[in-house]
UniProtKB/TrEMBL annotation:
<dbReference type="GO" id="GO:0008033">
    <property type="term" value="P:tRNA processing"/>
</dbReference>
<dbReference type="GO" id="GO:0005829">
    <property type="term" value="C:cytosol"/>
</dbReference>
<dbReference type="GO" id="GO:0005634">
    <property type="term" value="C:nucleus"/>
</dbReference>
<protein>
    <recommendedName>
        <fullName>EKC/KEOPS complex subunit BUD32</fullName>
        <ecNumber>2.7.11.1</ecNumber>
    </recommendedName>
</protein>
<keyword id="KW-0963">Cytoplasm</keyword>
<dbReference type="InterPro" id="IPR000719">
    <property type="entry name" value="Prot_kinase_dom"/>
</dbReference>
<dbReference type="InterPro" id="IPR008266">
    <property type="entry name" value="Tyr_kinase_AS"/>
</dbReference>
<keyword id="KW-0805">Transcription regulation</keyword>
<keyword id="KW-0539">Nucleus</keyword>
<keyword id="KW-0819">tRNA processing</keyword>
<keyword id="KW-0067">ATP-binding</keyword>
<keyword id="KW-0808">Transferase</keyword>
<comment type="similarity">
    <text>Belongs to the protein kinase superfamily. BUD32 family.</text>
</comment>
<dbReference type="GO" id="GO:0070525">
    <property type="term" value="P:tRNA threonylcarbamoyladenosine metabolic process"/>
</dbReference>
<keyword id="KW-0547">Nucleotide-binding</keyword>
<keyword id="KW-0158">Chromosome</keyword>
<dbReference type="GO" id="GO:0000408">
    <property type="term" value="C:EKC/KEOPS complex"/>
</dbReference>
Amino acid sequence: MTDHLVATVQKHVPNIPLKIISQGAEALVFETTIHPYSTTPSLHNNKQFIIKFRPPKPYRHPKIDASITKSRTIGEVKFIYKLEKLGIAAPSVISADFPNGIIWMEHLGSSLPDGNISSLKNWLWYLEKQGDVTKCVDERVKSVCNLVGELIGRLHLNDMVHGDLTSSNILLTDDYKVPALIDFGLSSFSNLPEDKAVDLYVLERAILSTHSVFADTYNAWLLEGYETIHHSVEFKKDGKVKYKDTIRRLEDVRLRGRKRSLI
Ligand code: AMP
C-alpha cells in the first residue's frame, strides 16, 4: 500500500529522494535533501526539507476527492502563510502543488540523543527515561511549557485554532528550547472561545495520557504561559477578556469530557 503511494508522489516530484517519516490517515510525510529551486535557502535547516502529500482517497468519488484535496492543501498553506506573517513559529512553505496535494516545507526540529524527532512529546519522554526526576520538572522544562502556552495563546489571540493540538504536533527547535507548531490539516479561523477551549483540552488530554506522572505540572505551566501572553501589553485591547472567556469555556469542555468518560 505504502509503496504504491510513494510511487504516486514520486511521479509528481521526479528524481527527488524521498524518505518516509510518517503515514497518517490524511497524509504521508517525507524528508528530502533537495530544495526545489534554491541551493542556498535561508531556512533554519538548509539540508533537509519536508514534503507532505495528501494521496488520492480511493473511497471517494474521484472528482470530489480532487476538489477536497485541493481545497485542504490550499487551506493549510494559507494558514501557514498567515502564521508566518504573524511571527507564530511554524515551518515556512517552500512550494506547493495544490491539485496533487503536495506541500514542500521547511524542516523544523532536530534529532534527540535517542534518535527520535524533537517533538515536545518525545523530548519529555526522553527526559523521563533518563530516570532523574528533577530534570523532568526543572527550569528548562518550565520555560518550554510556558513558551508552548504563549505560542498557543498567540495563535488564539489571532482567532486561529490548531484543531489537532497534541504534543507530537509541537516541535522543539534551537537546542530543544523554542517550540514551533506543525500539522495544520485541521486548522481553522475562529473567534469562538469554544474552539479555543477544545484546542487547550486536546493538548491537556494528550499530556495527561503520555506524561501522566508530571502532567499536572506541565499543564499548569502551559496555562501559565497562555495567561501571560493574554495579559501582555501587546494584547491589552482584548487579551484579558478573551482569556477569561476561553478559560471559562475550558471548564465546560472538561466537564463534558468527564461526563463522557463516565458514560
Ligand atoms: P503531520 O502529518 O503534519 O502531523 O506530520 C507527521 C510527522 O511528520 C510529525 O509528527 C513530525 O514528526 C513530522 N513532520 C511534519 N512536519 C514537519 C516539519 N515541518 N519538520 C519536521 N518534521 C515534520
